[in-house]
Amino acid sequence: MTIENPEIPVIAIDGPSGSGKGTIARRVASALGLHLLDSGALYRLTALAAAGQGKLDASPEILAGIAESLNVRFSTDRQGEEQVWLNDVNVSDQLRTEESGRMASRVAALPAVRKALLGVQKDFRKAPGLVADGRDMGTTVFPDAVLKIFLTAGAAERAKRRHKQLNDKGIDVSLAALSRDIEDRDRRDSERSVAPLRPAEDARLLDSSNLTIDEVTRTILDWAKDRIIVKRI
Ligand code: DC
User: Residue 101 Cα, ligand 1 centroid: separation in angstroms?
Assistant: First the structure.
């Protein structure tokens, strides 16, 4: 059963891939001493679990079953890096690949999968509060979030950031291919019929194209100040 507790505050950070949501959400959660939900990871994990069973092209019902019964564990290694375990196998690196992102985008377009992950996501809402990062946190999963942010950045800037990230990891991908990929994924994520990528009506828009990670974090912490009892800023 899903326990929903409206008294536990949620900060929803939504936006397209490459807007910096993941990094920002982690920083905001850590500064405020709140839990963190990386909802994209759940879609990626569903895709990985399905692919591992050779069921990526199975029916939506079968894929929803896989989503609902994900055996996932999150831990932190000695360097403070988050590690993700699927069926007790460390899938942290595999999870972040472009391939996983593409597969995730496909399963994320299925209403049955989104419905199956709804309860899984809501279960992350625990005291003292949650920072939830995704596409539909403010619109669908936590419509009563105390603060909703829609973080954007131009497609070219997002491709550049992703390119740098991959280069730093020693992965060689062309910038043009990445741009195409980002634009394709944006289109799929915004045009799908269920929970399309769009800002909640009461979301604050924040364009990070010309802002540093620190500046974006600071802005959100400022906005959070009057809505959340902060641990430390
Ligand atoms: O944020 P990300 O790149 O890890 O997300 C992977 C895919 O999952 C992306 O194509 C969009 C989808 N997604 C979604 O549909 N809804 C969410 N709340 C989070 C991610």
Answer: 8
